[in-house]
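From the methods appendix. Each design record in this collection lists the tokenized structure first, followed by the designed amino acid sequence. Records were kept in a plain field format so they could be parsed without special tools. The example shown here is representative of the layout used throughout.

RECORD:
FOLD TOKENS (107 positions):
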């Protein structure tokens, strides 16, 4: 999702070819890892993420809601990859480096 020109088009296509729902995985805009990636780009040390567009949980939920407008679905999200001092593996804590968002169709 981070490197797509139009994430909405990709989600629309996914909603057309799936039966049960959509599962998205992306880097979390508000994680320490993502902030470090942005800093490395700004300092010119690592251009890999220079064209990436990171999403917050709210942004990702809004994208999916926009695409699935008119479809009955339920949505869940979770994040993972936390700083080691937190001793978490996965959670609804919104600052994990990687987030997963699942939209299940209620058909």
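DESIGN:
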């Amino acid at each position: 999702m981070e490197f797509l020109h139009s994430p909405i088009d990709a989600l629309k296509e996914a909603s057309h070819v799936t039966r049960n729902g959509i599962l998205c995985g992306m880097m979390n805009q508000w994680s320490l890892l993502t902030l470090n990636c942005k800093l490395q780009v700004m300092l010119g040390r690592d251009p890999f993420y220079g064209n990436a567009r990171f999403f917050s949980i709210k942004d990702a939920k809004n994208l999916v809601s926009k695409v699935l407008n008119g479809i009955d679905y339920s949505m869940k999200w979770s994040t993972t990859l936390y700083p080691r001092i937190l001793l978490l593996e996965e959670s609804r804590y919104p600052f994990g480096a990687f987030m997963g968002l699942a939209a299940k169709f209620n058909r």
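APPENDIX NOTE: The first strand starts at residue 21 and ends at 27.
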